[in-house]
Here is the input.
Amino acid sequence: MISFFKNLYKTIAKNDPAIHSKWEVILYPFFKVYICYKIGHFFYQHHFYFFARLFSEFGKRRTGIEIHPGATIGKNFFIDHGVGVVIGETTIIGDNVTLYHGVTLGGTGKEKGKRHPTIENNVMIGTGATILGNICIGKNVKVGASAIVLKDVPSNTTVVGIYH
Amino acid sequence: MISFFKNLYKTIAKNDPAIHSKWEVILYPFFKVYICYKIGHFFYQHHFYFFARLFSEFGKRRTGIEIHPGATIGKNFFIDHGVGVVIGETTIIGDNVTLYHGVTLGGTGKEKGKRHPTIENNVMIGTGATILGNICIGKNVKVGASAIVLKDVPSNTTVVGIYH
Amino acid sequence: MISFFKNLYKTIAKNDPAIHSKWEVILYPFFKVYICYKIGHFFYQHHFYFFARLFSEFGKRRTGIEIHPGATIGKNFFIDHGVGVVIGETTIIGDNVTLYHGVTLGGTGKEKGKRHPTIENNVMIGTGATILGNICIGKNVKVGASAIVLKDVPSNTTVVGIYH
Here is the structure.
């Protein structure tokens, strides 16, 4: 439990140059929403979908960040600012991924089952980027601000504008 | 009254593939904001503008969705996720319209009176799309994610990128 | 103190054509967040960073507008609607500046020290625009909806699309 909070603190302190003191971390929206996600994800895995969504919504109301409790998220995940972020039910996120505010990891409405993106390790997704459908964003990819991504992105590349 | 909630439930259940149980509906942001809009709209029509805005703001604080109480909205309207949606005072929305989060139905700041869009039946507007001015979006139109629309769109078309 | 509220009222009433009555002003998200910013900014200047961020977060939870308490803001500043606005720590904003919802005045992650934009007088920044890095937006500039600005903009110009 303590190591969970320690890791969360380290991730936030590493990612945000605007942090001035240790206790500020508990004011970060990501801190709140990630705890809510963890509880919601636990309920989701045990098929208590109402409670899963209850915690998800609780976190969203306080932060503007909507992480579906069914999403799978790796280590050292971080969302900066965060208002407007939406992460869909079947999204899979690897380790060391950073999102900024306004990012959508969503579906196209045409697929069933796994219908949200897979994000591999060390990916950075800029402000307002929209990634739709069951596609794969490779390792070390950088997605530029407001980019729209509708097909697989190979590893070690940078994507801007509309990529489809 | 009961039929109002029944219709609202049906609309949400039809639109969201991630719903798992009936009672989840009451946790949906659209469920909350639509009830607030309905009350605010009633006050607006009777010229109690302060209370109209009070309910509009109340709904917005809980959901991140800002529907001006003066807007006119048809049947089976649905907003998915919803953070960042702004719907202006003189907007007119037809039946079976679906919006995603981050959509703006706003004004250009140059017009007076009717200065927001008219959306006809069966329109789908993707994440982050911006539709500005007193323009008309025709029937069965699909507006792509992050599109910017500044002039009339004919029926049965799909719009992406900047359309002006 | 009274003149502070009078000025705030005048700024809001001047900028929003949808306002119907005087007291509506206290319901405006900008009204709330600007008061929180002023208190947070006071704490920030006296190096109480925890309390500075506390008020900043308090305002953000109620409005979806994130103004870092370290930002410097001039007279007659106004944010319309506001959900999704992020203003970074070292941003400098001149007089008579208007932002719409979804605007980011952020950093690129590559700079240290002054890493956010400088906005000069009489600038108007449209919905969803993203302005990144230690760049200068000149006097009387208009930035279009969803524009991405990554380099200095000369005075008296209008910017749309990607500007880099």
User: Anything to note?
Assistant: The helical segments of chain A are 2-15, 29-45, 49-63.
